[in-house]
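Issue: copy button drops trailing tokens. Both records pasted manually instead:
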Amino acid sequence: MTDYRKLFDLTGKSAVVLGAASGIGKSSAEALAGLGASVICADVSGDGAEATAAGIRAQSGVAEAAVCDAASAASVSALAASGLQKFGRLDIAVTTPGLNIRKTILDYSEEDLDRVINLNIKGTVWFFQAFGRIMMDQRGGSLIACSSVRAVTIEPGLAVYGSTKAAIGLLVKGFASEVGRFGVRVNAIAPSIAETALTRPFKERPNIYNLYAAHTVLNRWSSADEVATAVAYLASDAASYVSGSTLFVDGGWT
């Protein structure tokens, strides 16, 4: 009989989480460490990354911090190389940073467009390239990107952001088709609205909070931890036959 508990156990695995200073990235790093993985917590905020790593170590986990700009190919490549040097193998890599400039298409400037595309789309490509090459060489690994319900459901001011999140879903499918024969799995999570530091201003406005809560069948926002458990599943051997998928963690929003 299959040992199903062991399938979710990440003991002995190595992981890198980009965007680990806050929100879903922070909770993802904590979830992976809580299941036994050794984690590099990376973020453009070095202090934030170190705070997450310190919190994991305080719970007897294994974690360290690194500074990385997810929109920079060179920075992401350096992060992957340092992770490989430290662990000798990279089993799991997660990227969560994203940028939304909430404006109508008519109001978007070229600078706005470049900023959103550079982080959301180009950043995902740089992530896949840097960590994908390593995992192809070692013939195994799990790559996890971050899409959104906005990939499939939209409202005024979110068209550009939503289009980048839809693009991530197709990048996942495409890269999964390219690296599957090397034993590398590629997936994404698609959260709806989670209670994080970034969304706190919205939560403090009851009309906005209730409006977004009502989009879900559960009539509430998620916690970042509830999204992180989906990351942990996709990272684990429990998802060994899952690749090219986007897992919606949206409370039934879609």
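Record 2 (pasted manually too):
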Amino acid sequence: MKKGKVLCVYSPKGGVGKSIISANIAGSSYLIGKRTLLIDADLYDGGLSLFVNEEIKKNIYTLSNDIKNNKYESILDYVYNYNEGLDILCSTKIQLEASLIKEKYMDKIIEDAKNIYDFIVIDTNSSYNDFNENIFNLCDEVLLILTNDIVNIKNMKNVITMFNDIGIYKYKVLYNSAFDFKDQYFSYEEMIDIIGANIDYTILREGFFKNITGYLFNNKIPILYKNNDVQYYSLLNKCNLIINDME
């Protein structure tokens, strides 16, 4: 059986649109007919909970705890059904529980997900730690989210240097200029030179949804609510390109 592809979305700085991009890529995967799972591995912030419209009783912690106690049977028992082809494995809201989720449980979660889903998107937090590094090694590709921000660019350079040092080469860089609310510090070419890697995808300011907070407050993944405008088609095409490049 062909196993599902796994994409990890990461940035060394928060507030760059990482969770929204993760959700939109997962939504685009669903729209092209792939059975899709969105995993919230941002254990201490849980940004993907914005897209869940009810109280969650089972999450990534309860799944991990059941693996530990030999009570686990299927990942399908722990996911939130967003729609008929898109599921979300939510994070816990309790920090103590988050600290108990170990790397070895993610190995089992991701492996089982690959046997059920065609495409898995994992949203992570901005820390560079053993937990996230384990996910980087387990996935098929890491999508690094860059903005024109001094802190993000500096941290991104360090991450790419570490990736190259430890042999992680399956990464691509997405420049999200839609989240550059202030003046841009560097040119496109200067950012490439500083981080030491190509920029593979770019989301322009005019290529992102307007009133994004309106979607979040209504638990809506934006890409699943069609707008006949340039924002919709630009973002959809970009997400589909990311997915197709992994085939």
